[in-house]
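Action item from last meeting closed. Structure (180 res):
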């Protein structure tokens, strides 16, 4: 099975992608890890698209892909079986993003190995590049986009699963774990 987990920053898509990968014993590919370079520099589309295609081709039968990056759809949704959309209420997504950001600021964990990229108070709370600001700006846009995608004939080959609660998410993980 090939699954793309999507949702607004802070929704829990990375956590869910790892759970699904464990349940299905499938590799997990993170778009952020492929995209972000040292000093918060993004990869060029040529490099990003090539690395994404290679990562997915490395396991042609099954993978779990974590991330949105709309401009990668021609690669990631070409052969995808299922798109799992984590669509929790705004208050939950924002509170999760805030909690995660504070934990990362305190721990100073490197977000993607070898990049040196870490959350900082300044970047999180005082920057236009803030993940919290990004979450605020994209939550509504993502909802409109994924609702439209679910009825778009171009994507009729994809099974869309919209998760609106933690309980629904747990049920999905359990059901895939049983069927694996």
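Sequence:
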């Amino acid at each position: 099975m090939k699954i793309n987990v999507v949702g607004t920053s802070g929704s829990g898509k990375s956590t869910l992608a790892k759970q699904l990968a464990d349940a299905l014993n499938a590799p997990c590919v993170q778009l952020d890890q492929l995209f972000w370079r040292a000093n918060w520099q993004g990869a060029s589309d040529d490099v990003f698209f090539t690395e994404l295609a290679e990562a997915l081709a490395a396991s042609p039968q099954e993978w779990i892909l974590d991330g949105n990056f709309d401009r990668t759809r021609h690669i990631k949704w070409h052969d995808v079986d299922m798109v799992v959309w984590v669509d929790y209420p705004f208050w939950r997504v924002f509170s999760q993003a805030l909690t995660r950001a504070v934990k990362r600021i305190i721990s100073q964990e490197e977000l993607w190995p070898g990049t040196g990229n870490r959350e900082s108070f300044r970047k999180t709370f005082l920057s236009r590049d803030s993940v919290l600001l990004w979450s605020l700006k994209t939550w509504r846009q993502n909802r409109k986009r994924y609702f439209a995608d679910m009825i778009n004939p171009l994507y009729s080959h994809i099974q869309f699963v919209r998760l609106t609660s933690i309980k629904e998410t747990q049920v999905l993980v359990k059901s895939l774990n049983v069927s694996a």
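Note appended to the action item: The mean pLDDT is 95.
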